[in-house]
Recover the amino acids of this structure.
């Protein structure tokens, strides 16, 4: 029996109206402006841009406001928006070596050229809630130390270290893959893995990265360098016949250096994992670098023994828009499916009881 | 100067101008432009239209390229009454700014006008960009760690 059910329209309309009401909340409290969100919740914006895979602060702020602060909902909104826009083309690869540095640290070299610059970091704070922030106390301007603009070579460019640390892989010129254009296929190459990781869910990648540290694909990592800052984006304009800088984006880059005891494919050395993420997203960039390194197991001839090394597992599950879509669809009406299963279980139960009553042996397990 | 050098110089000047226009503050650009007091007739050939540019990084920072994610970008092409065309593309969705940048690109193909635009628009924009970079660099430099070594032991 199949019964088509209608009647949700009015409830849905009223639910959305209620959502708008609750989102606005107490009308006597001023509404948040997008500028307030971009300026004062900047790292929330960065996460939405990173996992939404779309760099646009104002759009991310609108998404955060519309989603009532639900980050994955905001990311979903940004992903949906991007599908409405035409693709103009690809940028030239950004040069993170020419970054306008806002933070740059290395856990492996104390005295690296350019120095250790802490920037606006939560590190070394005591994680005590600050009651002053509940109000609007005046905040002093940042301290200055005038000198040359902060440019610093990438750690990876500084260290050849007698070949003990692997270099950048070949700068091959062929077109990198694009997961927004072609369906994913496994085994997957590193270019599309990095594209997936950069938009991957921070929590998921963080947990996997943590698992590698705890012994599941142990990779002995050091944070060779973390840098945050703006890079110029250049696009080749065919009308002009040359590339033009079209603006800047803020990125976080993490170079992870991992001890590697060698395999049939590569000698003992330090290998590297790479993280590059929109905005100031240090935890994510570090997690990305650890996951990138773990998934290079096949290339480096390591045994694949842990979840973080399984590229199909990691890449297929790191996208929180896909994941929430499939998990959350379970709350949509499944009345007919459930009726069918209910009927099935009722039949199995009746058979089970009749066998038991007749004293027949029971099957070991059934699903 | 050879003809090819001249062409290269002009291309370089154009590239630099467009890069400054793209990175410059929109409000300052509008203010500088208003200060010039010119309002050329122009026709929009394309846009301004907003779309996406796929941003690329390099594996390990210097290796093979990969696609990092996308950014919004806006582009426009204008044609002046005398037939000169100008192009601009800028990250973000500010269509008024991009249209103005394209008009400036078109106007600057005239040498005299280029000098005027460079003085009145490009130079102040560039100065503001440099100042912002210097300010931020100074604030970052103040957070630089100055390691010093503790003397240990008895002698």
């Amino acid at each position: 029996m199949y019964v088509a059910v209608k009647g949700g329209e009015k409830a849905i309309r009223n639910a959305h109206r209620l959502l708008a009401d609750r989102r606005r909340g107490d009308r006597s409290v001023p509404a948040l402006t997008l500028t307030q969100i971009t300026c004062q919740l900047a790292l929330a914006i960065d996460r939405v841009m990173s996992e939404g895979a779309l760099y646009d602060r104002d759009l991310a702020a609108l998404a955060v406001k519309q989603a009532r602060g639900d980050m994955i909902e905001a990311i979903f909104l940004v992903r949906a928006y991007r599908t409405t826009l035409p693709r103009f083309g690809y940028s030239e690869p950004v040069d993170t070596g020419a970054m306008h540095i806002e933070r740059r640290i290395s856990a492996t070299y104390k005295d690296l050229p350019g120095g250790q610059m802490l920037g606006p970091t939560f590190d070394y704070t005591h994680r005590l809630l600050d009651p002053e922030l509940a109000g609007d106390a005046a905040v002093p301007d940042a301290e200055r130390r005038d000198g040359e603009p902060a440019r610093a070579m990438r750690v990876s460019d500084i260290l050849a270290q007698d070949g003990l640390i692997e270099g950048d892989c070949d700068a091959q010129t062929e077109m990198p893959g694009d997961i927004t254009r072609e369906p994913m296929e496994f085994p997957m190459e590193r270019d599309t893995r990095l594209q997936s990781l950069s938009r991957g869910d921070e929590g998921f990648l963080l947990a996997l990265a943590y698992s590698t540290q705890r012994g599941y694909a142990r990779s002995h990592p050091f944070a060779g360098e973390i840098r945050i800052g703006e890079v110029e984006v250049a696009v080749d304009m065919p009308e002009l016949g040359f590339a033009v800088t079209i603006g800047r984006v803020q990125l976080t880059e993490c170079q992870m250096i991992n001890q590697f005891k060698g395999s049939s494919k590569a000698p003992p050395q330090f290998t590297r994992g790479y993280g590059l993420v929109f905005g100031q997203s240090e935890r994510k960039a570090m997690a990305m670098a650890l996951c990138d390194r773990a998934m290079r197991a096949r290339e480096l001839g390591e045994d694949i023994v842990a979840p973080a090394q399984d590229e199909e597992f990691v890449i297929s599950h790191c996208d929180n828009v896909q994941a929430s879509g499939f998990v959350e669809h379970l709350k949509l009406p499944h009345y007919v499916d459930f009726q069918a299963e209910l009927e099935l279980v009722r039949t199995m139960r009746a058979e089970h009881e009749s066998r038991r009553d007749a004293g027949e042996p029971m099957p070991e397990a059934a699903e | 100067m050879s003809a090819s050098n001249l062409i290269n110089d002009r291309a370089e000047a154009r590239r630099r101008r467009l890069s400054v226009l793209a990175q410059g503050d929109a409000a300052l650009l509008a203010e500088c432009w208003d200060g010039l007091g010119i309002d050329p007739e122009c026709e929009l050939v394309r846009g301004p239209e907003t779309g996406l540019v796929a941003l690329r990084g390099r594996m390990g920072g210097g290796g093979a390229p990969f696609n990092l994610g996308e950014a919004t970008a806006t582009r426009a092409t204008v044609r002046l009454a005398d037939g000169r065309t100008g192009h601009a593309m800028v990250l973000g969705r500010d269509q008024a700014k991009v249209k103005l940048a394209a008009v400036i690109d078109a106007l600057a193909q005239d040498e005299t006008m280029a000098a005027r635009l460079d003085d009145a628009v490009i130079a102040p924009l560039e100065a503001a960009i440099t100042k912002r970079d210097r300010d931020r660099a100074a604030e970052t430099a103040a957070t630089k760690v100055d390691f010093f070594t503790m003397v240990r032991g008895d002698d």
Chain B touches chain A through 55 residues (CB under 8 Å).
